[in-house]
């Protein structure tokens, strides 16, 4: 009788309507996303070639419309920003979850990181321009852009890593400590490896934010499209990324090939984001097996 009373009832119209709305919202989201991706790829891929990927760019020379400097600058900013922000963000999350006494101070830090994650990126750009470019006299440079982006993605890394560390069962830590392991050994040998997928998710999210950022870098890294000449010389020089190049070329309505270059750059940007995420996923799987 109990089984019949629980499972023999007919579905209520409200439940069916809610299920339909959920499925429709999911289908609409996937359709819009697929439409945007297809639109960009269809309009951009025909203009992507090896010459486009391997040559420099010039606003005056029609034979030089490549994106190689922008590709290199993008990799510079992604790599250097993650080298700065990832250790700081992960270490902060470890301190907040494993060492800090849970009280007002920790709550204040978490509230601050949540506020920072919601600040428009253009405000980070203004801050970076004022502090790094003018006060620290770095001018508009790759290094100034990396420092600005490190502050921009730090809240994402901290909060996502925190959630990953908090998801590790306390029984793991208690068992390790019961066997005589020290606090540092428990955290580095037990908690952090268990939370590694979540930590890598934080890095992937930060990577996507860096690659797709334009407003903050517009004020700090500049719009130069010169070919890099040495690692250390380049990080102190101005350089536009792929997103800035896309923004700048799309504004050149007078040029007949401007939109073709913009769509081709957008297609390369999508492929680059996919490849970086795929590499991070493969790295995560390798660490799990190891």
TrEMBL record:
GO molecular function, one term: phosphate transmembrane transporter activity
Membrane topology: Multi-pass membrane protein
Keyword Nucleotide-binding: no
Record domain ABC transmembrane type-1: where: 71-280
Any single GO BP term: phosphate ion transmembrane transport
Entry-linked CDD domains: TM_PBP2
Signal peptide positions (record): none
Stored InterPro entries: MetI-like, MetI-like_sf, Phosphate_PstA
Transmembrane segments annotated in the record for this chain: 20-42, 75-96, 108-132, 186-211, 261-280
Subcellular location(s) of the protein: Cell membrane
PROSITE patterns hit by this protein: ABC_TM1
GO CC list: plasma membrane
Keywords linked to the UniProt accession: Cell membrane, Membrane, Transmembrane, Transmembrane helix, Transport
UniProt family annotation: Belongs to the binding-protein-dependent transport system permease family. CysTW subfamily.
Name of the featured protein: Phosphate transport system permease protein PstA
Organism field: Caproiciproducens galactitolivorans
Biological classification of the source: Bacteria, Bacillati, Bacillota, Clostridia, Eubacteriales
Underlying gene: pstA
């Amino acid at each position: 009788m109990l089984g019949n009373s629980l499972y023999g009832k007919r579905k209520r119209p409200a439940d069916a309507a809610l299920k339909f709305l959920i499925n429709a919202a999911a289908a609409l989201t996937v359709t819009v996303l697929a439409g945007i991706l297809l639109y960009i790829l269809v309009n951009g891929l025909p203009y992507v070639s090896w010459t486009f990927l391997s040559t420099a760019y010039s606003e005056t020379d029609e034979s030089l419309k490549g994106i190689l400097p922008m590709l290199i600058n993008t990799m510079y900013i992604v790599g250097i920003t993650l080298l700065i922000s990832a250790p700081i963000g992960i270490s902060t999350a470890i301190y907040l979850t494993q060492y800090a006494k849970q009280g007002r101070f920790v709550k204040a830090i978490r509230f601050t990181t949540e506020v920072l994650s919601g600040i428009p990126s253009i405000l980070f750009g203004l801050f970076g321009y004022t502090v790094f470019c003018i006060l620290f006299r770095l001018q508009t440079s790759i290094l100034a852009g990396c420092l600005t982006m490190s502050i921009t993605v730090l809240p994402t890394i901290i909060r996502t890593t925190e959630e990953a560390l908090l998801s590790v069962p306390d029984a793991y830590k208690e068992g390790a400590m019961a066997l005589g392991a020290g606090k540092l050994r428990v955290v580095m040998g037990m908690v952090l490896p268990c939370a590694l997928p979540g930590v890598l998710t934080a890095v992937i999210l930060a990577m996507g934010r860096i690659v797709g950022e334009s407003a903050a870098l517009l004020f700090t890294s500049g719009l130069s499209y010169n070919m890099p000449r040495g690692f250390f010389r380049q990080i102190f020089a101005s350089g536009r990324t792929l997103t800035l190049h896309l923004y700048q070329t799309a504004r050149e309505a007078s040029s007949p090939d401007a939109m073709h270059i913009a769509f081709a750059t957008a297609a390369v940007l999508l492929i680059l984001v996919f490849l970086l995420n795929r590499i991070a996923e493969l790295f995560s799987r390798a660490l799990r097996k190891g």
